[in-house]
Structure formats: C-alpha cells, structure tokens
Design brief:
The protein is about 65% helix and about 0% strand. With about 325 residues, it is an all-alpha fold. The protein has one domain (about 50-320). It has a two-stranded parallel sheet. Helix 3 crosses helix 12 (about 275-285), helix 5 (about 110-140) packs parallel to helix 9 (about 240-255) and helix 9 (about 240-255) packs antiparallel against helix 13.
C-alpha cells in the first residue's frame, strides 16, 4: 500500500485485497463474472456484523480481567469510602458556596465502571466510527469504475466497512479497558462520565495507587475523596459544563482523519469473527495507534485549546478549594 491510493478494481489490487482478507483461493480477476460469483458466495458465508457496542464492552471487560484481580467492592471498602466522602462533604460545605444534593457514594469494580461510562464514550466516538465506515465504503465509489465491476463495488464496500468497523470496536474496547485499570473515581479524567448520582470511586485502583506512594492509604483516600467530591459539586452546580466538554470532544472526533492504508494492511476478518476473545485482543493491540492520521487542522487545534483551558480551570478551581 505504502500510502498510494487503493484501486479496488485493478486486478492486481483485487488479488492483494483478496489475500489480505483471507478469502481462500482467488478467482480469475480478469473475468468480472467469476469475481462477482465468488464474492456472492463469500457474502453468504460471512458472519453477521459484530454489534459494535457489545464488542467494545466485551473487549474492555476482557482487557480489565487480564490487568489483575477486579473484585466487587465489599462492605468494608464501601464504609471507608462513605466515611471519607462524608468528611470531604463537611469540609466543602465550609469551603465553597456550591452545595450538593447527592447522598452517599457509589463504589465500583473496574468492570462496573466500564458499564457505567460506556454510553458517554459511545456518544464521543460515534463520529469516528461513522467516518471510518464512509471512508471504507468510499474505496469503491470511484468515477472510473468499469461497468462490469459495478456490482462488485456494491458488495466490496459494505464488507470493507464492516471489517474496519469491527477493528475500530476492538481498538476502542482495549483503550477503555486500560483506562478502567487506572482511573480512581467518577470524574478522575476531568469530566463527568456518569449520569447524575453520588460521587463514584474504584477502591481496587485506589489501593494500587496508594501502594506506589509513601503516604498512608487512609490519607490518600481522604485526599482523593475531597477532590472527587469537589469536582462533583462543580459539575452539579454548573449544568452546562459537562455537556459542553462532551460536545467539544465529539466535535474533535468528527475532524479525525482515517488512515486507510493502515487499515488495509491489518485487516484480519478471521480474528474479528473469532469466538476466542484472546485473538481479538491481539488484533486490537496490533492496530493500537494505527487507525488515525496525526493531522492537526486549525479547527482541531482550536477545539483542543478550548478543552485544555476548561480542564485547567476545573483542576485549578479544585486545587483552590481543597488546598
């Protein structure tokens, strides 16, 4: 591929694509009727498209499971976080005019965090998946398609879009799973990822985070609870802030360019259709960082600057309140 445009109607390009897709013995690509007949047979054998959301969820949970133990938090962990949150809320009542209607805490495993935040991630990344599908289908939408290959283009485009969409779901699921293994609380990434509710914490991650520091775990717990409850109050009292950040991220996602050559070089329908999640994870790792071109348009730069400004203001306000 080497960055050159892909011509899916050139016999040599068709042969390379056929081999890349692992479709078995190649037909005579100089005979359009033979190619179309072979493609029709393959389409009848292909598995139905993987459900994108289910794939992201399954891969994320598998990634979480290989990162280490992920127990459902017990009563002791819940009580410790409840006490730390209660103390933090008492402090914040005196430190800020922002009040809260929330009572109690939410205490989650990593897998539960994945489930709770998946709708927001889906909203943010939908434009990328849509751009990817259009880009792959567009490979066959050229003006110079030979008439005898028109029917072939109608079959190849959806198949490429399906394979690339499945690949993106694998990549997204792995990224979400890795984040779940490190995030400490509901707004730890600097923005609200959850529907309205009490502050949320991941005690397994907090415990691992504390082990890497010389400070006692209880002190770390109280500090994290104070910051989480402060951010929670900020988002609760400025209702526009969270949706604005999600909208900016979604807008940024619409401007991301797809690297078609990287996708074509890594297509592996057998792995994407495999029941063995391990093979799917391997494919996701292979594609990590390869789907998107590292472009930076003026509009993207402006969006990124606005996001960075909002994040800095949020963390600056939290620093001011808790320290």
């Amino acid at each position: 591929m080497d960055g050159e445009p892909i011509n899916p109607f050139d016999p040599e390009s068709l042969r390379q694509m056929w081999e890349k897709l692992g479709l078995g013995p190649a037909p005579d690509f100089s005979d359009p009727a033979a190619v179309i007949s072979s493609m029709q047979g393959l389409l009848g054998q292909m598995p139905s498209n993987l459900n994108a959301q289910e794939t992201v969820r399954d891969v994320a949970r598998k990634t979480v499971s290989v990162a280490g133990p992920d127990p459902t938090p017990g009563l002791a962990a819940r009580n410790k976080l409840q006490d730390a949150s209660r103390l933090a809320q008492h402090w914040l009542d005196e430190a800020t005019a922002f009040k809260t209607e929330s009572v109690g805490v939410q205490v989650w495993s990593r897998a539960e965090w994945v489930e709770a935040t998946l709708p927001v991630w889906r909203n943010i990344t939908e434009p990328i998946a849509e751009n990817l599908g259009r880009a792959m289908s567009g490979l066959t939408a050229t003006d110079d398609v030979p008439a005898e290959f028109a029917a072939l283009g109608q079959m190849v485009g959806p198949m490429l879009a399906q394979s690339a969409g499945n690949m993106y779901s694998l990549n997204s699921g792995q990224a979400l799973g890795r984040l779940a293994a490190s995030v400490l609380s509901g707004t730890d990434v600097g923005m609200p990822l959850l529907p309205p509710g009490p502050p949320a914490f991941l005690p397994t991650n907090i415990s691992e985070f504390s082990q890497d520091r010389e400070t006692a775990e209880d002190d770390v717990l109280h500090y994290l609870a104070l910051r989480e409850c402060a951010r929670h109050r900020l988002f609760e009292n400025t209702a526009w802030l969270g949706p604005q950040m999600v909208a900016l991220l979604r807008h940024f996602a619409t401007k991301i360019e797809i690297d078609l050559s990287a996708i074509m070089d890594n297509l592996d329908p057998e792995a994407m259709a495999a029941a063995d999640m391990t093979e799917m994870l391997k494919l996701g790792e292979a594609m990590s960082g390869k789907l998107f071109k590292p472009t930076s348009t003026p509009e993207q730069t402006e969006i990124a600057d606005r996001l960075q400004t909002l994040l800095a203001l949020i963390e600056g306000w939290v620093d001011h309140v808790v320290e």
